Amino acid sequence: MDKSVVFLDGGYLAKLTKKEFVDERGLPKKIDMGKIGHILASKCNSELIRSYYYDCPPYISPTPTTNEKKRQEGFDKYIYSLKKLDKLTVRLGKLKKYFLADGTPDFEQKGVDVRLAIDVLKLSLKGKISKAIFVTGDSDFVPVIEAIKDEGVEVFLFYHQSSVHRQILEACDNKLLLDDALVDNCLRNF
Fold it and tell me: Which residues pair with 31 in a beta bridge?
């Protein structure tokens, strides 16, 4: 059986669960990160070697507010719970704060995309995987996708139509929609 690794863009999934995948109360659905990798690999007719989850902690100012501390505590608890899951590796970047021309603060993830690209490239070059499964909509991954395809890796993309760049759709071998039925199969049981 083909061996695969699932690469989960945590920011992308968070965005989708806030806007597209909400429960009957309008709250984001809680995806089980331990379950989703197995389900996606199965849909791609492959054996899951491992899932990688990429994200970054919330921004904390030099003198953290109570709200910032609370967000950080919640994030830390979530990451701790992920690190206990079998076959899941967590990779974290940093959140950089900057200001737009009008003085409005904005934030940008730093290091997340690079970590994902390094992981998928290493696994592909070492011949550890025959299939790479991405859950993202980011066109920044197109160069690494093209590189691993040259190494003979078949690339699958799970995406939502509301948030995907045309270039990544064109770059991937197989494109599958993240829809309500699929997401509902990946929810936490609690």
Answer: 187
Do β-strands 174-177 and 154-159 pair in parallel, antiparallel, or remain unpaired? parallel
Q: pLDDT value at position 190?
A: 56
pLDDT in tens, 73-91: 999 999 999 999 999 999 9
Domains of the chain, earliest start first: 2-185 (3.40.50.1010)
56 sits in which H/E element:
none
Question: Following CA atoms 139, 143, 145, 148 in sequence, which dihedral angle do they give, to the nearest 10 degrees?
Answer: -170
Compute the C-alpha angle 113/33/177, nearest 5°.
75
159 and 170 Cβ atoms separated by less than 8 Å:
no
**Sign of dihedral through CA atoms 56, 58, 64, 69?**
negative
Inter-CA distances, 98 with 10, 14, 133, Å: 21, 21, 32
